[in-house]
Amino acid sequence: MTCLLKSYKIVRISGKDAISIADKIFFSKKNKKLSSLASHTIHYGEIRDDSSERIDEALVSIMKAPNTYTKEDVVEINCHGGALSLKRVMELVIKNGARLAEPGEFTKRAFLNGRIDLAQAEAVIDIINSKTDDSLRLAVNQLSGILSKKVNAIREELISIIASVEASIDFVDEDIEFISRDVMGKRIKGAIDEIEALITTTDEGRIYKEGIATAIIGRPNVGKSSLLNALLKEERAIVTAVPGTTRDVIEEWVNIKGMPLRILDTAGIRHTEDIVEIEGVKRSREAIKRADLILLLIDGSVKLNDEDKRLMEEVRDKRLIILLNKSDLPSLVKKSDIEKALPEKEIVSISALTGEGVDSLKAVIHELLFKGGITAGERPIITNLRHKNALEKTKRALENLQNSIKGNISEEFLAVDLRAALNALGEITGETATEDILNRIFEEFCVGK
Question: Which structural domain, as residue segments, surrounds residue 19?
Fold first, then answer.
């Protein structure tokens, strides 16, 4: 029988001395030095310390520059995975000339050495943090360069325009028009349209990357925790007939048709004298404020009461789905009663206890958020706020350029606006990124990436 084993047991070394450092501690069964062996090969042997004490058996992979992740020499020591043996191996590697990598340093080196651009580097951490298959697919496509290619195409168009503008400046005495203002205006309009199209994908990208904060709210004992359990298909929250069982906000991730939902199961909202429950209600209201989507649960087996009506009024302006729960029991609440108070809001009948209607709820959530849906990865999608800000800066610079063209401003000022647009756009791929930007990006990575 073939088995799958998941473990974390690799010590990775990158840099010009990586192979020579490994040679000092690794002794192959064939008594060959790693430096003499072919690139992209794996070798079996032992890790030994200065006294020739055997620390571990290991498989060592040798990968020589430039065909590696960092474009530097890379050695990976595959140990047995025990914490102590890994610690000893790392200490030996450091003793022989290496240092501990900083968070994200391997990916940073890949960027600095030109193997990937900055947008692709950021996709690495998105891959690590992916919550669903679709978010993973989106991150992988970003790593492959789908966004970078689009950004670079726009940059090439702007570079072509600025070359013509600067040629006009250099040959001003020759009375040669390298590009007419009418043609320039049309090309700039085309670039703005492409940038706006990218910006409009930001909300979709944020959903796939960060998920939708979704608060399950309602008065006590309407079935909020049962709904959470039904969505998760496991008994995550305690469910009892005692009102006020949930005292705090419980947070879990749910995959809805490839879309990650960060579900917040809140304490029942009601007037209470219980000090702990008061704090739970306070946190529930805070969750409502920060939620992107509200699932308001109403017990359909009893008549609407004042607490239900107050909650309906409180969230009427939020992105909202009303759930008539306990459809397995005789209903005393009609959809028309809710439609009068909350017109144009989605209403779904469910039974959190039996699971009836949960699939319909998932379909309504997806439709509400995407209005028909998108397929992650089919086109460039902005998943990073930094990218959105850079695109907006580029757009503003190009709009300034449009005004300068209309105002018949001289070519020198047109070139300034074009340069500003190019610099802003270059922040996405790292062409013009500052050291501060790089540090902020890579410090979010874990050590080893």
Answer: 10-100
